[in-house]
Amino acid sequence: MIKKITILFIVLLVLLSGCRPKTSFSEDNAISAAVASTLAALPQPTAQPTHTPYPTFTPDAPALEGLFCEYEFCIGHPPKTAFFDARDAKDPSVYSEGMLASYRPDLFSLLIWQPNNGTDDPQFMLAIVMEEGLDTRRGNLDVNLLGDLTTFYSPITNTTSIPSGGVAAWICGDRAFAWKIYAPTEEIAQLIFDESMSKFRCNA
After folding, report:
1. Residue 165's domain spans which residues?
2. How confident is the model at residue 80 (pLDDT cuts 50, 70, 90)?
3. 132 lies in a domain?
4. What is the pTM of this model?
5. How many domains does the chain have?
6. Is 103 left (phi over 0), alpha (psi -120 to 50) or beta?
7. Is residue 139 part of a domain?
8. C-alpha to C-alpha distance for 127 and 138, rounded to whole angstroms
9. 85 CB contacts (<8 Å, ≥6 apart)?
10. Quick one: DSSP state of residue 66?
């Protein structure tokens, strides 16, 4: 009889413990769990990449400060800016064709290049780099000889928040280049172009 009562008591305890209300997951616990999972998902810091020196193509090439060198050409750029590849990551810039851009609040520049297909007149590149409905050429097209390069340059206006600028084109070797800048004034745009081109080199 005692054995039956003991067994019955144990069964009753088991049943009662199964019916006990479960502890609720408090809001504080939920926030802590969310914070912990967010912190765990954050990327871990990676080691800084080592500096890779850019190639220089002539013995008298200027110092690399303010100078972009890649794709077998070099060109100057304004302080506190840096060129980045403006093409889709699935179709990045290469030697034969590409597009670079740089930006800071008062300046925007764009540089493109492609095969020149045997022509020595780069003016077709002006139409490619200018956007219809956005950019308008002003004044005359200036043709200048910079070293052994013939450059075509024109001031432009545009409908962005930086209303002035300039556009240029030239040929070096088997490639045609075009450059566009939005700047506070036409004079600043011209000065930046002259300085950038004073550092231009390419493997012709």
Report:
1. 96-202
2. confident
3. yes
4. 0.67
5. 1
6. beta
7. yes
8. 14
9. 92, 93, 98, 99, 100
10. T
